[in-house]
């Protein structure tokens, strides 16, 4: 397999430097360490440094676009997919830190604009988004080259080409699209890799988190029903409470596990490995149950505490204010409820990757109806229903794998693992 071109590596290095600079700005605004961004001199230095970085980046970006065009003319899909994979992944830390820094900037600017109700914050936000988009665009150059080359060689269909071309120009989903395009390109080149142990990463994280959560639930039950309140026991419960926040950090704040899982699912899809997809989907969904029970209890305690806070402060007088008082109590509770629901939902999303991919693979082989596929894709993104849906999908997949191979079939039975080096379809007959 080839490697990323030198312009791609240079752009990656500049993005790493940009992540460091953006991280310093974010810490300077939020924690005022290691530098302070609250004085004219500091702000001037920050603007000059970031402006110089942006100028160097844009010059390098022009070289990258020219390099992607060169690979397209040359027909070098191997180098294009490696460069796309390298640039998209190495850019993630920059855009995460950039989002944090820009959110802080907009908040600070808006908070300081008392006279116009924070209007300055709303004015500066589009400008910052535009600058971020200018930085974002060059990272998609090699992905566009991959799509163009595969479409030119009739290795992908028009729908696949159009959808992924559009996704390459949208924040966040561009990374997922890039992973899909890179893996399809490797499949067409005949160098698709098996996911190996990477497919077990998400399950491993959830199993460890749920084991700790189960122990926490047992300790809470013992403390409540047997009235055990020894200091060491209470301390143990406190430390076990960290299971849910730790998993949230791994699945949402530092999205390495979801990206590895998504790539593994794409590889299994391209390898037609329904059996492993089914097992992975079941393992992941069942493993998260204790963790989500703990998360639900913790969120309920937080929301209840926030709801009771104004009642406790006013010693119940707020309840005598009628609808206005109840509205205030509800508003206070919502400050905990809304983040809790959003955070829990974001933590749930990665656990549906294997199930949705399993549905996509069965749909690809027309083993399920479009209605069945659409219904269960929707259910995969609804609390509790996602677990029930996974059980149904896994059962359906088991039935399909146990079924006979249609007479005259040109492919192995759906769910069977291909022999090493054996491709399940011809590159000149795309099904994507």
Give a written overview of the molecule.
Helix content is about 75%, strand content about 0%. It has about 425 residues and is mainly alpha-helical. The chain folds into 2 domains: about 5-190, no CATH class; about 195-400, no CATH class. The longest helix has about 35 residues, at about 40-75. The two termini are about 25 Å apart.
Counting structural domains, the number is 2
**Spans where pLDDT lies below 50 across 5 or more residues:** 418-429
Kindly report the average pLDDT value.
Answer: 87
How much helix, percentage-wise, in residues? over 70%
Largest sheet, if any?
none
N to C succession of SSEs: HHHHHHHHHHHHHHHHHH
Structural class by secondary-structure content: mainly alpha
Shape: globular
**Tally of alpha and pi helices:** 18
β-strand percent reads under 5%
What is the terminal separation in angstroms? 23 Å
Instruction: Output the radius of gyration.
Output: 26 Å
Total E-strand runs? 0
Task: Give the gist of this structure.
The protein is built from 18 helices and no strands. The protein has 432 residues and is mainly alpha-helical. The two termini are 23 Å apart.
């Amino acid at each position: 397999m080839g490697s990323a071109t030198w312009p791609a590596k240079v752009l990656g290095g500049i993005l790493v430097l940009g992540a460091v600079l953006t991280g310093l700005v974010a810490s300077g605004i939020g924690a005022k360490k290691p530098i302070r961004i609250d004085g004219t001199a500091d702000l001037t230095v920050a603007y000059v440094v970031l402006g110089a970085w942006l100028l160097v980046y844009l010059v390098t970006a022009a070289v990258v676009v020219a390099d992607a065009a060169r690979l397209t003319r040359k027909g070098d899909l191997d180098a294009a997919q490696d460069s796309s994979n390298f640039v998209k992944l190495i850019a993630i830390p920059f855009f995460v830190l950039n989002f944090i820094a820009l959110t802080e900037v907009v908040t600070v600017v808006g908070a300081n604009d008392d006279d116009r109700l924070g209007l300055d914050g709303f004015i500066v936000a589009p400008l910052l988004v535009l600058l971020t988009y200018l930085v974002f665009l060059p990272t998609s150059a090699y992905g566009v080259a991959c799509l163009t080359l595969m479409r030119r060689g009739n290795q992908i269909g028009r729908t696949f080409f159009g959808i992924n071309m559009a996704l390459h120009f949208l924040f966040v989903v561009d990374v997922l699209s890039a992973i899909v395009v890179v893996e399809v390109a490797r499949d067409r080149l005949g160098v698709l890799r098996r996911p190996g142990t990477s497919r077990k990463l998400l399950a491993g994280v959830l199993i460890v988190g749920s084991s700790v959560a189960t122990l926490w639930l047992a300790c809470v039950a013992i403390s409540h029903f047997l009235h055990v309140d020894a200091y060491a026991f209470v301390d143990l419960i406190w430390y076990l409470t960290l299971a849910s926040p730790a998993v949230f950090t791994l699945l949402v704040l530092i999205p390495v596990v979801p990206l590895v899982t998504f790539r593994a699912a794409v590889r299994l899809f391209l390898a037609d490995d329904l059996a492993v997809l089914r097992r992975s989907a079941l393992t992941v969904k069942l493993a998260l149950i204790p963790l989500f029970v703990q998360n639900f209890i913790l969120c309920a305690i937080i929301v209840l505490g926030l709801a009771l806070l104004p009642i406790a402060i006013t010693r119940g007088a707020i309840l005598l204010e009628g609808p206005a008082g109840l509205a205030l109590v509800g508003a206070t509770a919502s400050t905990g409820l809304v983040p809790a629901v959003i955070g829990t939902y974001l933590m749930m999303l990665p656990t549906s990757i294997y199930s949705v991919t399993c549905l996509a693979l069965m749909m690809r082989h027309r083993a399920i109806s479009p209605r069945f596929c659409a219904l269960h894709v929707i259910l995969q993104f609804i609390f509790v229903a996602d677990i029930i849906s996974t059980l149904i999908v896994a059962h359906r997949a088991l039935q399909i794998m146990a079924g006979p191979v249609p007479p005259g079939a040109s492919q192995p039975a759906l769910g069977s693992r291909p022999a090493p080096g054996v491709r399940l379809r011809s590159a000149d007959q795309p099904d994507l």
